[in-house]
Design goal:
50% helix; 5 strands; 17% strand; five-stranded mixed beta barrel
């Protein structure tokens, strides 16, 4: 029971990291939309000071910090996945699921960018929406459709694996272009999602 609870907690932590990674592009867009650095080339121009600059750009700088943090989390996850070492399996059926990246982008990221962020109450609404979306993201296992993964070169597949009982198939994330008959080594994110790496044959 204790091991199962710890495993569930670890899975939830991974899903939350995936969700945070998925917001990387949103944070970058918010920074670009809200940054306000006055530039003047007149002879009497002077620097307004760090205090006023931070005050008028608090949302932009916060978004920039979160974007950098999101990319660091993504890099950490990619490094962690580099240790794919489980025994190889053969793909007996495969379907491309890369459209999920675009679905997530158009369904969640683009509409949120359109919120008016010049007023504090709308920023609060944005935060509430991100929390609610994150809750749904984790509970419904939507973390695979992550546009940050696409930017990092990962492809999304739904596959059937020889010797693995998964009636609805497995979601496989890989930087390789997989096909029917490919042999893959893998590491499990949860029981339905694998990070995989293609190998030439099942004896490697």
């Amino acid at each position: 029971m204790e091991d199962r609870r710890q495993r569930d907690e670890n899975n939830t932590a991974v899903k939350l990291r995936f969700y945070f990674m998925s917001l990387w592009l949103l944070f970058v867009l918010i920074f670009l939309l809200t940054v306000d650095i006055p530039i003047c080339f007149s002879k009497d121009a002077h620097f307004i000071g760090f205090g006023p600059l931070l005050k008028r750009n608090w949302l932009a700088f916060t978004s920039l910090f979160l974007a950098i943090l999101g990319w660091l989390v993504a890099s950490f996850e990619k490094h962690r996945w580099a240790g794919v070492h489980n025994p190889p399996h053969r793909i007996k059926a495969i379907k491309n699921e890369n459209y999920e990246y675009l679905t997530f982008l158009t369904t969640y990221i683009i509409p949120l960018v359109c919120i008016d962020l010049t007023e504090v109450r709308y920023v609060i609404v944005l935060v509430v929406l991100l929390v609610l979306i994150g809750f749904i993201f984790v509970k419904m296992d939507l973390y695979c459709g992550n546009p940050t993964l696409a930017l990092m070169g990962y492809k999304l597949y739904r596959v059937e694996i020889e010797g693995v009982n998964a009636p609805d198939g497995l979601i496989v994330i890989s930087t390789d272009r997989l096909s029917k008959g490919s042999f893959i080594k893998w590491v499990s994110i949860d029981k339905h999602v694998w990070i995989s790496k293609e190998i030439e044959n099942d004896t490697r």
